[in-house]
Design goal:
Layout (H helix, E strand, L loop, with lengths): L3 H4 L5 H12 L6 H8 L1 H17 L6 H14 L5
Helix pairs in contact: 3-4
Length: 81
């Protein structure tokens, strides 16, 4: 399941070029990357800063444990991603 805007040409031109270059080398951008780059000023940068501090900032839990918590939460919420 992918939103139409994230699959087509709705991204800014430099981002579309980056995606096409990746496909030339057999790489497809993950959906999360597509979302973060879709409207980076509105969603991507603020969300990225928040996630960096939550997932990699100081904590009693390791980054691996935090990733496991996030995956478990996604499963419980029936998130397909």
């Amino acid at each position: 399941m992918r939103l139409k805007n994230l699959s087509g040409g709705a991204h800014p031109l430099p981002v579309r070029v980056l995606f096409r270059l990746g496909r030339l080398f057999g790489l497809d951008a993950p959906d999360l990357g597509r979302v973060l780059l879709y409207r980076a000023g509105f969603f991507g940068r603020p969300w990225g800063i928040l996630m960096q501090s939550v997932m990699r900032g100081r904590s009693e839990w390791s980054p691996g444990e935090r990733e496991l918590f996030a995956a478990f939460t996604s499963v419980q919420n029936r998130c397909p991603f």
